[in-house]
Target: DUF47 domain-containing protein
Amino acid sequence: MKIDRFLQLFVVKEKKFYPLYIEQAANIEAAAKLLVELLQEQDPEKQKALYKDIKEYEHSGDMITAKLYEELNKTFVTPFDREDINLLSGRMDTFLDFIHDAAKRMLMYRPKSVNQLLIAMGQCIVEDARILKDIMNGLEYIQKKPQEINEKCVRIKQIEHDVDDLYEQFMSDVFANEKDAIELVKLKNIGQVLEDATDRAKDVGDIVRGIIIKFA
Amino acid sequence: MKIDRFLQLFVVKEKKFYPLYIEQAANIEAAAKLLVELLQEQDPEKQKALYKDIKEYEHSGDMITAKLYEELNKTFVTPFDREDINLLSGRMDTFLDFIHDAAKRMLMYRPKSVNQLLIAMGQCIVEDARILKDIMNGLEYIQKKPQEINEKCVRIKQIEHDVDDLYEQFMSDVFANEKDAIELVKLKNIGQVLEDATDRAKDVGDIVRGIIIKFA
Amino acid sequence: MKIDRFLQLFVVKEKKFYPLYIEQAANIEAAAKLLVELLQEQDPEKQKALYKDIKEYEHSGDMITAKLYEELNKTFVTPFDREDINLLSGRMDTFLDFIHDAAKRMLMYRPKSVNQLLIAMGQCIVEDARILKDIMNGLEYIQKKPQEINEKCVRIKQIEHDVDDLYEQFMSDVFANEKDAIELVKLKNIGQVLEDATDRAKDVGDIVRGIIIKFA
Model:
């Protein structure tokens, strides 16, 4: 009976990680939604307010990442490889950083106009965030339904390809039509970071797929 | 005798990975060669046709990467660390993505002229691809001839340095002579992705060197 | 007694890594200091001389990285995971490469003026290098004082955030005030690589934190 309790201690401990990943995913989704609003916002004051909120989500994200690291340092038995727990939280944080970076560029550059294709790219980031939330909700059961989670990761890969195409179309447009070199540089760099953000979402998916492989 | 057969099953299984890596390397080499043609092509229609072919190689690359991932999920005994098998295919895919990205930029930007130094950088990417093909052909014997394979990885590192120098020269030229800011941005970004591609080839080499280290 | 000697052989062997990391950190710090000088230098001849010296440090860095790799191949018992030894030297080398790259861009682009904020970013890189030197000096005792080393890694994370803010301010300035598109592109790209360099310093810290976690 004492041993049972002892084992339970471990079980309780290792379960600490899941809610933190779920919290982080919710954080990312909230920031991604505000980014799409920001891409469509013209009013400088409202832009500033949206950016401030995104910055707060990014800060919360840092806190969650730090907490995951601390928990990891206190926990002997982890639900999957220690390194993967660390990598997963690191990559999620990086995805959030890129969302924040995209918002920051909107404020730094203040482009004269925002193309519809950029907004579509932002919406893909929101979809990535939604799928990541689903994945994190299922993480606890990854051994029981690896196929289901793998499919979600494949979907994120697909989104990354779609965004590549959007970005290609956007850049062709900009280089064909924008005659003001400074505006062109602004748009190019905002498009670039949106495209990069979806690569970072794929990085998170790759870590999850790596975890699935180890359980195979 | 039954046990022999059982063991053979494993041996057969683990051998599935090598041909896929070799196939991927051939794929990369084909795309790299077309990229050099594209860099030298002036005719828009021919450029489009070359890009279309490169895009198909990139798509085949995704298929091979997916197949490697599936094989990994079905295989219990792998010739080297499961994670390294996964990393190696991921990095090869990324190298191919960068070749595709360089081609895409040519189509998106349509620069007025292409410098000889850019073509030289493209040729270095072809050399990287050739060396990677050699490495993948030798991968099965990596424990028997680690030194030989390591030397090939070192050669890829050297190419990366050479391309750094080419890029440096190219950029100095462009910033000194190109007075049209939009053309300058185009050339800078095409040069950048060619240079980045050789970094990605080095990343593949680094994974191989990591595998050698584990066998040491 | 024979066994003692045998064990001592291992102890001696594994200790070979620490001085190489310390040497690399000193190398990085020297290059970082010259970079700050270069950012403040107007005279083209002196700029060239400073760049030449930075290039030499970068070359020494490659030598040290190669030596670490060789040692690793000869050593059976390592103070921490073989992969981490390899990753740590790789990431330190990458940080140094980015310092070198920043210097190279100064020479390639020759911007008409260098903003005070860029110099402040350079000074943050020097601080990163100093902290890394401290970390490498303590690496041998990482199991005895993980908290102390972890705090240094957290400090590097903090610097990365500070540099993000500096970069944000710098870019807002440049996009608001620089009317020459080519000068704008130059300054943007120099600022970018300085900001990226502090990300690479954080990457080194992340590897160290990963090592701490494995000992926890």
